[in-house]
Amino acid sequence: MSWRGCMRRSWAAFQTLMHRRRQHHSHQPSARDMGKRVRVLRKQRGLTQAEVAVGAGMPQGSMSRLERGDYDDIGGKALLGLARALRVKPQTLLPERTPRPRTGGGLPA
User: Fold this and answer.
1) Which of 11, 19, 23, 52 has the greatest number of beta carbons closer than 10 A?
2) Nearest alpha-carbon partner for 51 in 2, 75, 86, 97
3) Cα–Cα dist 74/49, whole Å
4) Which residues of the chain have pLDDT under 50?
5) What is the pLDDT of residue 25?
6) In CATH, 29-93 is 1.10.260.40
7) b/e map of 7-26 (b: 16 or more CB within 10 Å)?
8) Contact in structure between 79 and 91 (CB atoms under 8 Å)
9) Is the dihedral of CA 58, 64, 69, 72 positive or negative?
């Protein structure tokens, strides 16, 4: 196989992998919900993605991925930076927690 053919195969495999990752991440409601919250807050304040990204100390591309819900795991430092840039409490950005149903792990009656 030629070098060019090998590169085409590698690129196709990479694109397939990235498509699968996007599908997997798109089913994570917490990432999507957080992205929606960030976008709504940003627009309410009349800020651009770049302005919020600078204020949060993160690249603009990461900000874009976050708003789309493609951001897998946001660290504490980034969360605090976003909250500061959007002038909200960090808890405002976090997804609402729903209590897990108990499954028989309690004390006996």
Assistant:
1) 52
2) 86
3) 16
4) 24-28
5) 47
6) yes
7) eeeeeeeeeeeeeeeeeebe
8) no
9) negative
d(CA 52, CA 82): 7
pTM: 0.61
**Residues 52, 42 contacting (CB under 8 angstroms):** yes
Burial classification of residue 78, based on how many CB atoms lie within 10 Å of its CB (0-12 exposed, 13-18 middle, 19 or more buried): middle
Q: Supply the Cα-derived Rg of the chain in whole angstroms.
A: 19
DSSP H/E element including 31 = helix 29-44
Helix (H, G, I), strand (E, B) or coil at 40: helix
Please name the residue that has the structure tokens 């992205």: 35
